[in-house]
Amino acid sequence: MGSLADDTIAGLLESPVKHKGNRAANRARARRIASRVPEVMVKITGNAKGADHVQSHLDYISRNGKLELEDERGDVIHGKDEVRALAKDWSQDQGKRRKNTRDTTNIIMSMPAGTEPRDVKDAVRAFAKRQFGQNHQYVMALHTDTDSPHVHLTVKSLGYDGRRLNVKKSDPQKWREAFAVELERRGVEAEATPRATRGVIKRGVSQVVHHIREKGQTPQVDQAKVREVLVDFRDQRAGQAPKPRHWEDRIKERQTYVRKAWLTAAKDMAQSRDPDDQELAKRIAAFVGSMPPMKTERHELQEEVARQLQRAQERQGREESKERDNQDER
């Protein structure tokens, strides 16, 4: 078989980390992705700023001392008093700081439902030791109160060397890949494929926004998006062209390329005499067919607002019809 499929797959799997595997490794990874092996999730949920905020966060992840915290030495912190003592200790050693200095970096690392929670915690422990253990204090807490077992990892920003943790844009993807490696070492199938490679357009929802929505409230960001959609509808009714959103065009272009590249690789492998290639070609074609629609959150909001407006118009039409019938009877 020619190298077209291999080159195409290599290009698709090249992440921001710029890690390239060999042909066999790339094919094995493509097979796992097409088979929808569980994807790891690593999300920076925020930062604690100031002593009160640090204490509040540690109270939250420990459920006010009911869940144990484990630090970088493997020591267990349990109970409200021990958690408060840890928060006080971290707050007394803040170094030089400005008003908005980030005293912690708060991370969630999780796997889909069905993963053994202990494996997730063990993998996070190994990851944290490799990534932060040389220079930073940290604590971790395993949560199993949702379908997806997850660990809250809180890293003290000020390092032993007096420098603060500087998280780069590419770091979360690097951490995802390192987390997946640690899971695989424990016999847990895991992948860390970038969203774009999986055909995913919508970004994840931040923890803050998620909590606000859970309370039945509308976050400011949602309100702003709805207002934007309503302005678009108003402009359309007035015969005005919608405002250009070049970033959406770039997303569509990227996703068109991703889908075409996967299908190109599948077509090339389907022509191979190797049964494994043919089987992988079928998996990839099915994988592309199951990719989510190329819609941003704004597009979904547009559709929802359109449905609400349509229902409102239909309701108004029924009320007007009923009123006319009543007038005719009189």
TrEMBL record:
Domain called MobA/VirD2-like nuclease: residue spans: 79-179
Cross-referenced Pfam families: Relaxase (PF03432)
Signal peptide range: none
Region (Disordered): 288-330
Annotated Gene3D superfamilies: 3.30.930.30
InterPro entries the UniProt entry points to: Endonuclease_MobA/VirD2
Residue ranges, compositional bias (Basic and acidic residues): 295-330
Official protein name in the record: Relaxase/mobilization nuclease domain-containing protein
Organism, scientific name: Billgrantia desiderata
